[in-house]
Amino acid sequence: MPVASLPFGTAQLREMARDLLVRLRWRDVRIVADGQVDIEATPPIGVPVLIACKLGMVGRVAVQEMADVAEARGPGAAIVTAQRCTTEGRQLAAELGVHVIELDL
């Protein structure tokens, strides 16, 4: 689905992702929206994770960018996308330890 046809924007996607993480019992969930990271949160067991929310398809570039941000700022990285991740993006995410959550809305 083209990004333009989604019935919501990035701010709403951030809120949906935040609400999902809270329901999954993640801790310290907060929206930061600083241009690189949309949400910071800690899973029930684990280290804090920096999360980027993307409306469109996620590919290698987005995965590499998030891995670079996590390397500079924090221990974990994830991307929540309203659509899908490309095969190449998934492969790179697995190599770099970036978790990708596809909502496929």
How would you describe what is shown here?
The mean pLDDT is 90. It contains three helices and five strands; from the N terminus they run H-E-E-E-H-E-H-E. Helix 2 packs parallel to helix 3. It has helices at 10-23, 60-73, 87-96; strands at 27-31, 39-42, 49-54, 76-81, 98-102. It has one domain (10-102): Trna Endonuclease, Chain: A, domain 1 (3-Layer(aba) Sandwich). The chain has a five-stranded mixed beta sheet with strand order 1-2-3-4-5, with helices on both faces. It is α/β, with parallel strands linked by helices and 105 residues long.
Low-confidence sequence ranges: none
Given helix and strand content, the structural type is: alpha/beta
Order of helices and strands: HEEEHEHE
Helix count from the secondary structure assignment? 3
Quaternary organisation of the protein chains:
single chain
The shape is: globular
Mean pLDDT: 90
Physical arrangement of strands within the biggest beta sheet: 1-2-3-4-5
Please state the second-level CATH architecture: 3-Layer(aba) Sandwich
Radius of gyration: 13 Å
Explain the layout of strands and helices.
Layout: H1 10-23, E1 27-31, E2 39-42, E3 49-54, H2 60-73, E4 76-81, H3 87-96, E5 98-102
Parallel strand pairs: 3-4, 4-5
Antiparallel strand pairs: 1-2, 2-3
Helix pairs in contact: 2-3
